[in-house]
Amino acid sequence: MNRIHSIYVTMLLLAFLGIKSFAQFNYDEDKIPDYTLPEILVSDNGKKIETAEEWKSIRRPEILKRFEESVYGSVLKDSIEVKFTVLKNDPQAMCGKAIQKIVMVSFIKGQDTVRMELLIYLPADVTKPVPVFLGLNFYGNQAIHPDTSIPISKGYVFNSPEFTIFNNTATHTSRGVNSSSWPVERILERGFGLATIFYGDIDPDFDDGFKNGIHKLMDYSDSNNAIQPSSISAWAFGLSTAMDYFETDKDINQNQVALFGHSRLGKTALWAGANDQRFAIVISNNSGCGGAALSRRKFGETVERINTHFPHWFSKNFHAFNDKENELPVDQHMLLGLIAPRSLYVASAEQDKWADPKGELLGLYYAGPVYNLFGLESFTTDTMPEINTPIRTGNLGYHIRSGRHNITRFDWEQYLDFADNIFTRKDE
User: Fold this and answer.
1) 111 lies in a domain?
2) Given a cut of 70, is residue 381 above it in pLDDT?
3) pLDDT tier, 428 (very low <50, low <70, confident <90, very high otherwise)
4) Are 313 and 265 in contact (CB under 8 A)?
5) What's the structural domain count of the chain?
6) Residue 226: its pLDDT value, please?
7) In which domain, by residue range, is 28 found?
8) Looking at the chain, which terminus has fewer C-beta neighbours within 10 angstroms, N or C?
9) Which of 10 and 125 is assigned the larger pLDDT?
10) b vs e for 401-415, b when ≥16 Cβ sit within 10 Å of the residue's Cβ?
11) Alpha carbon distance, N-terminus to C-terminus of the chain
């Protein structure tokens, strides 16, 4: 069992202990309930959306608001001062293979400050602004690579014996333990940069009623405000703030940033990409329920299950749809449609039934009509492709690979190829 999958399974087993067994969840396509997806190209007042301009001015704002009100909560909008401090700029990192930058991002409101650390690697031979992959990480920046110059993340981290993390604290023994999910050298070799942030710097991943992390800077006049920013919205805000920094860095091509996320951070990447149209590519890796997979299929993880065990990930309003997916005013194909006309890649894993691979492909397939409005191609079939056989059509990509719920070298090679193709086309 690989490390990422082991951690994922351990968390789930702990969450489900003494409640229900996995056997009670549906993994049978023949048992998918009947459902009708909300119309992606019909406005709230019944108008059929027929042009890209109508999508941008009418339907897109409606759908974005529905997701804010019903699923993720509002995007952080309070007046928070943001300060960037470049702590390090080493042009000879990794024995001369990379430029390493460490940027402290301070969120300031009144007397309170929350800090997140942005770790950036760029190819050493930079002669012009380079495209960059941006993604949140689970175990601290030091876990993505054994480079001893990376500071140890100080925030709350999930306990994991396999990742040598105990008492929710990262130590030097966790250096590089998750490097298989972050092939830094390969990314640099392909001409891309990599930027990452420990998601716990933004909002610790446990339910405390939204009182810690960046939430403590928010002014909630009503503690029961159902659309207050969820953890996913908070993490998404951190990603957008990283983009704010990129716009100040002459070494980074701000028009060629690929936003990447795995699992709950894949859900976050999609929500961040939906809200912030500066991201040129959005990549969802095994994001499942609340990510790319259609909620109404009730296959694998369901809305009720995810809200019960991770109540802070989504808004309080989303809990009203526990076991009532058909009453949702949106479904995840509409979230993916919000990425259009930008590039979008969704990836699944054969043994990751909990994340509903078929539902992830269908989310992408049913987002297609939005891409068509912009004169772009979309997937013409909802049939699952062969394992380890990526399909790419215009600005859309998908694959289902062998293996479990994790990030593999195969995944990264597809993302690098996809981004290379998209950015090369834009440069021509």
Assistant:
1) no
2) yes
3) low
4) no
5) 1
6) 56
7) 3-80+136-184+195-427
8) C
9) 125
10) bebbbbbbebbbebb
11) 44
Amino acid present at 415: Y
Return the closest-CA partner of residue 415 out of 116, 119, 186: 186
What is the Cα–Cα distance from 214 to 76, expressed in whole angstroms? Answer: 9
Question: Does 251 reside within a domain?
Answer: yes
Q: What percent of the chain has pLDDT over 90?
A: 81
- Cα-based distances in Å from 356 to 32, 73, 284, 295, 419: 11, 24, 13, 10, 25
Instruction: Write down the pLDDT at residue 229.
Output: 83
Q: The tokens of 321 are what?
A: 């749809």
Count CA within 13 A, CB hemisphere, residue 261: 28
The span from the CA of 264 to the CA of 426, in Å, is 30
At 224, which CATH number?
3.40.50.1820
Q: Give the bridge partners for 257, in sequence order.
A: 132
pLDDT at 267 over 80: yes
DSSP output for 136-183? EESS-GGGG---TTSPPP-S----BGGGTBBTTB--GGGTTTTGGG--
Taking 60 as the threshold, does the pLDDT of residue 287 lie above it? yes
Q: List the catalytic residues.
A: 263, 405
Packing angle between helix 264-275 and helix 231-246, nearest 10 degrees?
A: 60
257 class by beta-carbon count within 10 Å (0-12 exposed, 13-18 middle, 19+ buried): buried
pTM of the model: 0.93
Q: For position 30, what pLDDT does the model report? A: 96
Per the CB < 8 A criterion, the answer to whether 395 and 337 are in contact is no
The verdict on residue 281 lying in a domain is: yes
Given a cut of 60, is residue 295 above it in pLDDT?
yes
Q: Which among 365, 369, 370 is positioned nearest to 385, based on CA atoms? A: 365
* Domain-located, residue 105: no
> Residue 289 has what DSSP assignment?
B
